[in-house]
Every structure is written in C-alpha cells, then in structure tokens.
Design goal:
Blueprint (H helix, E strand, L loop, with lengths): L1 E8 L3 H12 L5 E4 L15 E3 L8 E2 H14 L4 E2 L3 E5 L4 E6 L3 E12 L3 E3 L15 E3 H11 L6 E5 L3 H12 L3 E7 L8 H8 L6 E3 L1 E7 L6 E6 L12 E4 L2 E4 L3 E3 L2 H5 L24 E3 L10 H21 L7 E7 L2 E5 L2 E3 L6 E8 L3 E10 L2 E11 L5 E6 H5 L7 E6 L2
Parallel strand pairs: 1-2, 1-8, 2-5, 8-19, 10-17, 11-12, 11-17, 12-13, 20-27
Antiparallel strand pairs: 3-4, 6-7, 7-8, 9-18, 14-15, 15-16, 20-22, 21-23, 23-26, 24-25, 24-27
Helix pairs in contact: 1-2, 1-7, 3-4, 4-5
Length: 420
Amino acid sequence: MQQHDIVIVGGGPAGLAAAVAARKAGVQDILILERDGHLGGILNQCIHNGFGLHTFKEELTGPEYAARFIEQAMAENIPCKLNTMVMDISPDKVVTAMNREDGLFEIKARAVVLCMGCRERPRGALNIPGYRPAGIYSAGTAQRLMNIEGFSVGKEVVILGSGNIGLIMARRMTLEGAKVKVVAELMPYSGGLKRNIVQCLDDYGIPLKLSHTVVKIDGKERVTGITLAQVGPDRKPIPGTEEYYRCDTLLLSVGLLPENELTREAGIAMNRVTGGPDVSDSLETSLPGVFACGNVLHVHDLVDYVSEEAALAGRNAAAYVQAGERAAANPVPLTAKDGVRYTVPQTLDTANMNDKVVVRFRVGDVYKDRYVSVYFDGERVLHRKKNVLAPGEMEQVVLTRQQVEKYPELRQITVCTEVE
C-alpha cells in the first residue's frame, strides 16, 4: 500500500489551490488524484472571461485562471495522477483508486482533501413529459461539446433554467450563430449572477421568462419544439398559459449538485441544504483528517471564492498532518434563520479559531432593503444593510476572534436577515 501525507481528490481549481497552500505550509508529501486527462477541471471549458478579479486583480478566461494554478503546482513539484478514478475513501483514510498504469491501488493518507466539484442536475430529475429525442443537453455538456470538442449543438435553442451556465451558454450559442428563443426559469427569480443576466441576455435581446417551465417536448428523432407554461406559487403549471416555441435544441441549466458519493460512503455527516458535508471553521468534516472545499462543499458563484476556501483547507490539512488529531475544544453551532438557507461552516471552534473566519451563506428568496445580522446567544453583534439579497449571489460575513472572545460562554451563533 502506498502512503502519502496528504491526498487531494480532484485536480480542478479547488484541488490545485489546496495542494499549493499545503505545500507552502510545509508538507512535502502531497498527491493529487484527477479523473480527467488534464488538470484544471471544469475551467478548461469555460472560455469566457470574468475569472480572477478577486484572486489576481485582473480579468481572465477559465483556462487562463486554471493555468495560473497549474503553473504554481508545477513550480512546487506537486505530483499528480491523471486519468485516475477514486473508488472509495475508508473511515481510516485509505483511498482506493484505479487507472490504466497502476490498475487498482490503495493509498494510506494521513489527511484527505475532498475537491470533487459538482455535477449538473439531469433531465430525469425534472419529470418533463415527452419523448427522449436528440437535441436535449445539459448546459455544461453543450459547453464542452462547443468549446472543447468543436461541435455545434443546435440552431434554434430554448434554455430551461437561468443558472450561470445557462446564461453563459445563451450568449455562447448566439455568438456561434444560433437563435436563442427564450430562457425560462421555474422560480420567480434568476439563479444566476446579475452581471450574467445583463451581459448574456439583456445585451443580446434574449428574453427571460420567470415563473415558467417546460411542460411538453415535441419530436421523436430530434426536438422539433417545446411548450412553456407559467407556474403558480405552488410551481405547478397554470392551464391556459401555454406557449409553443419551435426549436431543435433544449438546454437544461437546472441546478448543480455537489459530487458527494465518496463523502457519503465514507460515513461523513452531510448537510441536507447544501448537499455537501458539514464542516467546522477549519473546513474539516465529521471524519477527522478529511477536509472539504469548493463546489463539493457547497455550490459557489465565483471561482475566486473556491480558491480562497481551498487554500484554507490545504493549510488546515497541513496543520493536521504536522500536529496530529485535535478535537474541537469548544464547537459552537452556526444556525441559519429568517431567510438565510444555510451557512458554511456549520460549526466554529471558538478556542482554536483563526483571527478571522469567513462565513458564507445564501438566502432563500429575493429581498430588498434588508439587513444581514449575526447574533451571539441572542445578542446582535453585526447588522449590515443590503439593498438587494438574491439566491443567485453568495453572501458572506466575517467573524473575528476579537468579537468571539467577548463571549466566553458562547453557545450559539445565528445568521439571519431582518427588515430593520
């Protein structure tokens, strides 16, 4: 059995940032396992710009952003195994993987960082009636086919779902000469960033229909058209509101799911809202020595935040290897209430926390002129006005050790929204 100090599962932006941070923190024996043939993950197919504004203070494309971290990893001589599929992670941190060169092999790791990213929700989860003709793609699959494989996927397009990938593909299809008829969204608000709605839809005159969904797909060999209908507050179609659109392609951008089969099989405690594992402020899961970061933890809107989070996970994995297992001295739960859907992390070890802890969260609806508040045991310690809060935009608050030390008997931290 091979042995390594830190095994990083996934060679995308999270895995690369975690590996570089762990090496800089003093751990030499690091191995990255990546199932694709290239490092960089999903960024390799994201040829649009808008990446790196926080991390590098300049606007980069996805491949350029990935290349920066690949260069850092190579400069640190961090080894990686490509085309390697991780099959299992045991509770005692034995990683089982396979590839063509080594066959099936096992690695005993002192620490593991989970960086598997996320996947798209498939058509099967949507219950759309109709046949299964050609021309139905998830937005990410269409993006890969166009940007990496060099195929055109359609000429007349309808997009269901207004997540960021769907919005970006609306622009991408238009630039390739396709006609995007409409983007339909089940919810009464968009799931994407405001800047993507402006740059990808408004700038190209593509209509966005909120509170609409596809109720029928026509065509047997290939999609010939779809029927949209308005939905009510119960998200069920309203009879009489149907509209028919002739098209040969339907793109689905209906949400992302953290890729957590390995996490569940390892017996790690999962979060029902995020779809990722519960973590402490050190990004350690319920299994000691196993850390999680990036989209496998919760779906991010900016890759810059993925890299920032992953660097923290890498440093903490290095600290775990160097100092050994350390039980949380005073784990305080973070609770999401009144419009806040979840927080990451879910617990804060007040005795061993860093000088600053970033708490990221998403809201469950669109709110205007609301306050984001943080309570320590019922006492409000942070109160910040936001003109707009939307589910598509990830929010954050920063808690400091200085704040926490004023409450030596702290038992609960609550993050919520308030009208005043």
